[in-house]
Amino acid sequence: MALSVPARPYDFSIEPNKAALVVIDMQRDFIEPGGFGAVLGNDVSRLTAIVPTVARLIGFFRTHGMLVVHTREAHKPDLSDCPPAKRMRGKPGLRIGDEGAMGRILIAGEPGNQILPDLAPVAGEIVIDKPGKGMFWATDLHQTLLERGITQLVFAGVTTEVCVQTSMREANDRGYECLLIEDATESYFPEFKAAAIEMIVAQGGIVGWATPLAALETAFA
Ligand code: C5J
After folding, report:
1. Where's the Isochorismatase-like domain (predicted)?
2. Mean pLDDT of successive 10-residue stretches along the chain, which has 221 residues
């Protein structure tokens, strides 16, 4: 049975048996003080502030028996999945694969690449290591979601205008209906978050819908 969720630009009709939550890149290196994001000079407190809301959202999906997908921006240790143009971006010593405060930066298996303990995946959930900003490039996620009959994706995570928005746009092009939970996503740059949400909902929801978590919870109450 479909439920109506108040959202922008208009109500989102969610079908619980066809919907999955995607939690984008809630990994230690982007969010914890002392990690890669902080070393780059970003104010990570904006990102740590959403952790309780993301945890509540994950709990909501688990309570309702709906699928949860977690992603990490992660490269293989030999960097064979990291294009040179991405590898060489930024200052020497602070590039993908370099040794950082929490192990090698954006490398699978390193401490900084782990999802925050408060948001850790549980058995039965999908974890995707993605070498790109978008979650479908060089991953098998689309096939996995098709096999499970998922047609709607609810998005959370960081950062709103980079990996979240890129993944939403990829999903939109693949035919998924996408709803962004606006208080469960964040950016180091508040103006970029606000602009990304406006871009998503503009022109009748050209990329998707946006709503606060409370609106989703109320629709199921
Ligand atoms: C970035 C991400 N910002 N997860 N990654 O490089 O948004």
Report:
1. 19-207
2. 97 98 98 93 96 98 98 98 96 95 97 98 98 98 98 99 98 98 98 98 98 98 95
Does residue 130 carry a catalytic annotation? Answer: yes
Bridge partner residues of 69 (DSSP)? 22, 126
| 183 is an active site residue | no
DSSP state, residue 114: S
Q: Please tell me the predicted confidence (pLDDT) of residue 178.
A: 98
Burial of 121 (0-12, 13-18, 19+ CB in 10 A): middle
Cβ–ligand 1 contact at 158 (below 6 Å) = yes
SS3 content of the chain, % helix, strand, coil (to 5): 40, 25, 40
130, 133, 178, 193: the catalytic one is: 130
